[in-house]
């Protein structure tokens, strides 16, 4: 009986959601972001590595303004910290973004692009910390599902590229890129 109530409530909410129009007019403020918290333990079967305990936290708040209907400009801040045994990594980056919504219904496709710069500190805080400059860009696309006139749940796919240039050794440069699922919550004021 409980499952039937849950299914019924979700069906009613979905029906209401389809009838609600999203508010992406000029002058509105977009506030959003995502967060991740991860605790893991890795056991290596080799004698040299043993067991590693990894804790990571990521926060990506963003704020923007709709300069035209369905077009927002803003800034995305990316903060993350990872601890692995005695090593600690701290990442901070700022990326201006442009976000474009399509359509006028409560489910709107969106496309967002961003380019930014940041800093990465990594190593053992008691011994040596390596510092790096970061360059990043990304593009996300998907659907903004407006639950009401203010709140949107974003679901989609994104591609990200991050280049890390070490300050300590001029020639060292690492790059990372990939595709991942994107899920976030957007509030329009």
Describe the overall structure.
This protein is mainly beta. The protein has a single domain, classed as Porin. Helices cover 10% and strands 68% of the residues. The chain is built from 1 helix and 8 strands; from the N terminus they run H-E-E-E-E-E-E-E-E. It has an 8-stranded antiparallel β-barrel with strand order 1-2-3-4-5-6-7-8. Strand 4 and strand 5 form a beta hairpin. The longest helix is centred in the N-terminal third of the chain and has 18 residues. It is elongated and about 55 Å long. About 6% of the residues have low confidence.
Which properties best describe this structure?
mainly beta; eight-stranded antiparallel β-barrel; 1 helix; 8 strands
How would you sum up this structure in a few lines?
This protein has one helix at residues 2-19; strands at residues 29-43, 51-68, 71-84, 87-101, 107-123, 129-146, 151-166, 173-188. By secondary structure, it is mainly beta. It has one domain: Beta Barrel (Porin).
What fraction of residues sit in β-strands? over 45%
Query: Using only CA atoms, what is the Rg?
Result: 20 Å
What is the CATH topology assignment? Porin
Amino- and carboxy-terminal Cα gap? 38 Å
Net shape: elongated
Mean pLDDT: 79
Number of contiguous helices: 1
Care to count the β-strands? 8
């Amino acid at each position: 009986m409980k499952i039937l109530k849950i299914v019924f409530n979700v069906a009613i909410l979905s029906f209401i959601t389809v009838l609600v129009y999203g508010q992406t007019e000029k002058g509105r403020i977009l506030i959003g972001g995502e967060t991740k918290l991860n605790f893991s333990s890795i056991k290596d079967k080799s004698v040299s590595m043993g067991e590693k305990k990894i804790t990571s936290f990521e926060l990506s708040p963003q704020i923007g303004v709709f300069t035209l209907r369905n077009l927002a400009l803003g800034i995305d801040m990316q903060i993350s910290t990872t601890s692995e045994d005695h090593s600690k990594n701290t990442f901070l980056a700022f990326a201006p973004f442009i976000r474009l919504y399509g359509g006028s219904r409560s489910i709107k496709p969106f496309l967002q692009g961003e380019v930014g710069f940041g800093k990465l500190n990594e190593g053992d805080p008691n011994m040596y910390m390596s510092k790096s400059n970061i360059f990043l860009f990304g593009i996300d696309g998907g659907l903004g599902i407006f639950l009401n006139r203010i709140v949107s749940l974003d679901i989609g796919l994104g591609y990200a590229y991050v280049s890390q240039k070490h300050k300590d050794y001029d020639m060292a440069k690492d790059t990372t890129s990939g595709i991942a699922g994107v899920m976030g919550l957007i509030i329009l004021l």
